[in-house]
Design a protein that fits this description.
6 helices; eight-stranded antiparallel β-sheet; Chitinase A, domain 3; 2 domains; 290 residues; seven-stranded antiparallel β-sheet
Length: 290
Amino acid sequence: MIQRSKSIAFLILTVIISITLLTSCNKNGYEKTESGLEYKIIESKKGRKPKLTDVLRMNIKFTSQSDSTFSDNKLFITELFQPSFVGGLEEGFALMTEGDSACFLIPSDSVFKYIFKQPLPAFIKTGEKIRIDVRLLEVKTKEEFEKLANAEINEFIQQDKLEIENFMAQNSLSGTQISPGCQFIILKEGSGSFPAAGDTVRIRFTAKIITGEIFESSKLIGKDFQYVMGAPEVPTIWDISTANLKVGGLYRIIFDTKNRKGLPGTNKLKGPGAVIYDVELVSINGKASV
């Protein structure tokens, strides 16, 4: 797989990385805000101070009272909002400046209810303090972040365009651009009628990165993909593609980075790049080809 620098736009989805915080903290030496948030600034760089709605890029590690790390070294990108609860972590972010590292102590009940939004796990005690190590890597205004993200996405789109053109030339393929960044190729004609809005279609697919490595398929999932044409939860590009195929037919569709969002299996991919889906239309409203 072609390696590329990670786009900030993709890092919003939360990417696990191997960077560790240079400092950690213990129970001693903490200060407390009026709301009750316990904090300690470990390293102060006196950088840019975040304001509400600024976009923050941070390394964060969560450790239980028994020194068990249960969420280690994740890179988070998020807007700075008002605290979601009294003594919330957002208040701690606002105390930092770009380049700082800090530690915060927050009750486990609040951490799992408001941050992880899930029940308290069995290995965490009710009321115990969770230690949160944070390094604030970068502060951007929303406008700065969007400008940078859009520039990087446009760069990826141009790279994808070249990759797709080379792939099609090398494989002697001729396709139709059904949308900017999406090439549609019929590999096998089906029979019968075309599906229409409201029809329930069943398809089988194999998804690959453009170099040929399979990252998802109906076989891996263990079942065909069934959906209603025109359903809002299904990417529109599926409807556009499937509407051009009869039952028993097979098509190939190539997506660039911008258009692959929401497609089955793409959450497994950790970087940008074009993807290929080979799709067979198995049935319409339960009726297969004769």
